[in-house]
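Request from the bench team (R.T.):
"We need a structural guess for the complex before ordering more coenzyme A. Sequence and SMILES attached. Just send the tokens back."

Command: build protein-coenzyme A structure.
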Amino acid sequence: MNVPVRRAVATDAPAMAQVLRRSITELCVADHGNDPQRLGPWLENKTAAQVATWLAAPDNCCVVALLETGISGVGLVTAKGEILLCYVDPGARFRGVSAALLTALEDHARALGLAEVRLEATLTARRFYAARGYRPQGCAKQAFGTLTCQAMAKSL
Ligand SMILES: CC(C)(COP(=O)(O)OP(=O)(O)OC[C@H]1O[C@@H](n2cnc3c(N)ncnc32)[C@H](O)[C@@H]1OP(=O)(O)O)[C@@H](O)C(=O)NCCC(=O)NCCS
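Reply to R.T.: structure attached below.
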């Protein structure tokens, strides 16, 4: 099934923040190990107010994936081709949500005329991205102070 994806609007911000927080907390345990020192900084900016500022930034393209239960995934790509968010709600895992988000973000970057998209992959999602043509760029590095992320890129 193709999961519907649309551009996010301002009123989506609370639901988007909830998906981000649930996805990180429940799905990314391999990354944060349920350690408050690693989880806390990661969640700190995943608030409705912060999501609203991301939505309002003209260089950002924010998208949401919709299932029967509502907003089930959140994606964000910048005008420079940086994919900053690609998160699925735990209740919607393995139903094609992340794949649909990624396709929409890549399509947007392609429509902007960009030749490449880049992201910082969690340990949780690294294989998912590799299976979709993303290649590691250099060594793994730190994000939010204590997380280890792998820079990856894909030619469009
Ligand atoms: C790993 C993850 C990214 C996959 O996203 P998803 O929306 O659950 O997955 P999709 O339904 O789009 O399917 C993608 C892949 O999941 C895997 N998958 C699908 N069903 C599965 C199942 N029942 N069991 C295990 N893996 C399964 C497959 O590899 C599938 O790829 P394929 O379609 O090429 O076979 C997601 O589950 C996750 O854990 N996200 C956490 C947030 C995160 O780390 N985001 C990235 C920030 S950089």
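Two things stood out. Helices lie at 13-27, 29-32, 36-44, 48-56, 97-111, 126-130. The chain has one domain: 5-115.
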